[in-house]
């Protein structure tokens, strides 16, 4: 029996329209994109990867992939004015690759390497594929799955985790793979591992897809620009490095450091096993991802903003808007295109808090209020004001923790030098600081925000020490904390 799951026609991508959600195939997603509000994929790392794949297909369907400069901008505006993708263009693209979007194709399974069934002496297991399942000795996330009795995945969910592995896969130990007599069992991290990913949103899924296509510059990677499923052949030398990064489709879809192969059951109705291993032995050329924030370290190098499950999205809005900042930050390149279009929409963020290797702590997603109208090209005063507010909030937040730790050390004769006060005070402060931030942004009261954050900081100190401040010694410690918070830092204070 031939096993098949056609990604073009079979429903596997969750979308939402109003209060209704459903699964659709790729053709329906593009033909009806203007009728859908958004993607609704419940696995954030898979969603971040899927957006990049959909942007690449959008570039192909609209012809944006072949244009640069003013012609690119004119074409993007023309497509947006049409209000939907042309059905003929969608059909023509998928007809060009009739056998490349089958999840279980025996020769070219979508985004997979069929050679792994021969080159890997042992499979990795379906639990290794799914990030939210424990595999081997890793930690339990949402369910007590075991390698001894693995639960099969429906094909649509297996496709989600396939994408997540290609973009967020771990470095370090992996299933052994032997190529040309050389065997290795370690891999490099995926291109988005441990990072934040930001995506401007339009009024519907169609607009979000068109707005999210990154613009190239003249002379940038003018060679063949192919997605993995568009290539006639599989990579011929995994022992070397990947092909040079092309733009835009290669950069969006072809930077994976892992090779994956799904193993379906006899009927092709579920995925029962998987191979997850290394794709290349040598590093590829660096490529700037257009959906990440980059910051500069002390040595002058740039790094992608890491995901932090304890950090709320509003604290990085200044980095998206591009206002004046004390930290050397490069906002996502896609925000420049959004500014050119004059949109006033929101931004969706995806994060996966994980280390470079096996530890996956937390994934999350969040959406900002409409902020695109505040981008520096359109409203520099607000962009700079948001940066001022953010600096004030961060400064007070840090100093609340410092003040409470020092006050605790002055009064506590215990080995715990940290004490409970800082943890309680910081939690109180940060859970309330967001409301202060948005109020002052909406009111345009950027300089007043520093004083509001300072007042909140003093409230946090009182809250943290409230149950302990019964003796004169404790009272003096609390007073010390208040005094420390009120004392301007060396770089100045917004209080």
Describe this structure in words.
The protein has 495 residues and is an alpha+beta fold. It folds into 2 domains: 13-278, no CATH class; 379-494, Orthogonal Bundle (Topoisomerase I, Chain A, domain 4). Helices cover 37% and strands 14% of the residues. The radius of gyration is 25 Å and the shape is globular. The model has no long low-confidence stretch (mean pLDDT 91).
Q: Domains counted in the coordinates: how many?
A: 2
Which blocks of ≥5 consecutive residues have pLDDT under 50?
none
How far is it from the N-terminal to the C-terminal residue, by CA? 71 Å
* Largest sheet strand order: 2-1-3
Q: How helical, in percent, are the residues?
A: 25-40%
What would you call the structural class?
Answer: alpha+beta
β-strand percent reads 5-15%
Strands, count: 13
Write down the Rg. Answer: 25 Å
Shape: globular
Instruction: Give a quick account of the main beta sheet: strands, pairing sense, barrel closure.
Output: 3 strands, antiparallel
Q: What is the tally of helical segments?
A: 15
SSE run: EEHEHHHHHHEEEHHEEEEHEHEEHHHH
Mean pLDDT over the residues:
91
